[in-house]
């Protein structure tokens, strides 16, 4: 009878994902300055050579990590909207307030994002990813605002303002959780949505 192997080699996609997740943890803990192939290898429990097998270098790994983190946030937002049902206003509120709850309202996620933001001015690839991520968020918000009766001519500026409000509240919620909570943050955003929608209706 053939003896089973003592271990099974991780599938390539699973190993790649484990390196991306390790990179996110190192970025959150040590920032960009403390993130290296060796640090990520130690975090993932693998050799530096294995990191090099999956990624051409630290820049490529950080870019892949940004894409992965953004995807997880996007999935969380999408799930919140799906849970809200079919009512357009409920879907809009779900999208606009999901950032104030787990898994998005997380100090470690904020620390990882700060590391990414620090690279926007120096890394064109990260700048492109950043621009694409925020454009996709605003586009989704514009679509939801449109379903609530906000005309196309007002959707862009409304989405920019609401996005800035969400980002600011998310930042403070992660940095100063004792100052206010998710319920208060959601109330502030709902009031802003009320103002945008009511103004659009009166103007129409």
Q: What is the distance, rounded to the nearest whole angstrom, between the alpha carbons of the first and last residues? A: 79 Å
What is the CATH superfamily of the domain at 67-203? Tetracycline Repressor, domain 2
List low-pLDDT spans: 1-9
Return the string of H and E elements.
Answer: HHHHHHHHH
Q: Tell me, what is the CATH class of the domain at 67-203?
A: Mainly Alpha
Helix residue percentage: over 70%
Write a brief structural summary.
It is elongated and about 65 Å long. It has a domain at 67-203: Tetracycline Repressor, domain 2, CATH 1.10.357. It has helices at 12-30, 37-44, 48-54, 58-83, 88-97, 107-117, 124-147, 152-175, 182-203.
Describe the structure.
It is a single chain. By secondary structure, this protein is mostly helical. It has a domain at 67-203: Orthogonal Bundle (Tetracycline Repressor, domain 2), CATH 1.10.357. It is built from nine helices and no strands. Helix 1 (12-30) crosses helix 6, helix 4 (58-83) packs parallel to helix 7 (124-147) and helix 7 (124-147) crosses helix 8 (152-175).
């Amino acid at each position: 009878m053939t003896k089973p192997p003592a271990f099974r080699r991780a599938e390539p996609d699973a190993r790649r994902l484990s390196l991306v997740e390790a990179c996110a943890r190192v970025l959150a803990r040590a920032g960009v300055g403390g993130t290296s192939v060796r640090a990520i290898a130690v975090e993932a429990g693998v050799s530096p050579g294995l990191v090099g097998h999956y990624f051409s270098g630290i820049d490529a790994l950080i870019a892949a990590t940004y894409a992965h983190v953004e995807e997880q946030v996007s999935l969380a937002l999408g799930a919140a909207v799906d849970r809200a049902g079919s009512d357009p206003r409920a879907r809009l509120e779900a999208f606009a307030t999901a950032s104030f709850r787990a898994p998005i309202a997380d100090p470690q996620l904020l620390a990882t994002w700060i590391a990414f933001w620090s690279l926007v001015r120096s890394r064109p690839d990260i700048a492109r990813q950043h621009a694409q991520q925020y454009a996709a968020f605003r586009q989704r918000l514009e679509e939801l605002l449109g379903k609530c009766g906000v005309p196309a001519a007002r959707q862009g500026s409304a989405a920019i303002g609401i996005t800035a409000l969400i980002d600011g509240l998310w930042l403070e919620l992660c940095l100063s959780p004792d100052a206010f909570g998710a319920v208060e943050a959601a109330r502030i955003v709902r009031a802003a949505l009320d103002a945008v929608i009511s103004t659009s209706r009166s103007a129409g």
